[in-house]
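Side project, low priority. Logging it here so it doesn't get lost.
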Amino acid sequence: MDDKLEAAIEKLKIDCDNYLRTILALQALAHELQWNDETGSRSTDVRVFFGRRFDTSSKNKIICKKQVTPDLAVQFPQRHGVLVEAKSSIPKSRSHRSQIIEQLQKYDDDLFGWDTPDSSMLSHDIVLLTDSVLGNPLRNLIRSEIEKGVYSFDRRFSLVKFAVLDQRNAAVTLELNYGSLSSPVKTTKLSDTVAIHLRYLVSGPMTNIRLYDAEPPYPYLLNLIYEYIPSMLSEGEVLQMKEGETTVSLSIPEFASRLSIAFGPGQKGEREPEIPRKNWVRRALDFFVKLQWAIKDKASQSYYYTVKNRRNPFQQFLRVCAEDILKGAKKKSPSQLVLAYPDSKDLDYDVDGTALTP
């Protein structure tokens, strides 16, 4: 295999892994913030929202009177909240890294859109949740910029780093790496590192979440769709598939809704995001057309997908997407890059953190 192709495939594998790890980390932090240490149980009156839309005020430091969508919002009955932004990779460029701080500063505001009678909160904390290998570089960057007076936060700000342990007792660890939360109990607990065993995440209300308010790498989404479609089949279609293959008709609105129920946060309301978004699903199905696994009817905009057992589908997705990335880079065609990689600017991102000291 060509070295560039092999490297691109490996990069996509890491991206897919990082996406799932980030979901687990968001679930783990939500679980910890909901956890009542006195009762030893989850507090049912602590609300959790994935990608909820909030409105900024006219005094916002970055954008006034616009909508912002933190990856996670946790709402406590005492009219206090926590807003979380997750990052599993960061730009190599220092100027681009500073944009992460600016994004966090958008949340340093009296935001409108909480699930309260007047849609407001008395206070909220801001948390940056990041992979453990990026924790120290980001901490150093943020601390340096704050000490120089380039940025400041009026609300409590903290950085929490996570790691996903794959040993026998699989768990997500959370460690406070900078700042503090309003809760002294949680601040102390996270400072000592908390391990959330995956058994808690696979048995709670967030069990089936495999998508959040960030478009996944295409191999990840394609594989999710490939594994889900057989569950839609009737008994007769299952029999046809076992004998060879069968075809299902997919319309974007209905299929996106099905995927949302199966893999999204499952929250409804005018401020709740559509996860997955319809354009994610449309681009994924267009990719299946490119693979010749589906046909698109231009008149009805429906897709006819051929369901059958395929050999190493995830490996096929990785290879074809990697080839698209390399073709796009060679031809300098953004459209081709976007097809294989939802956010092409991420191609500039470092994953291992080795070159990220400020």
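Brief comment: The chain has eleven helices and 16 strands.
Revisit when time allows.
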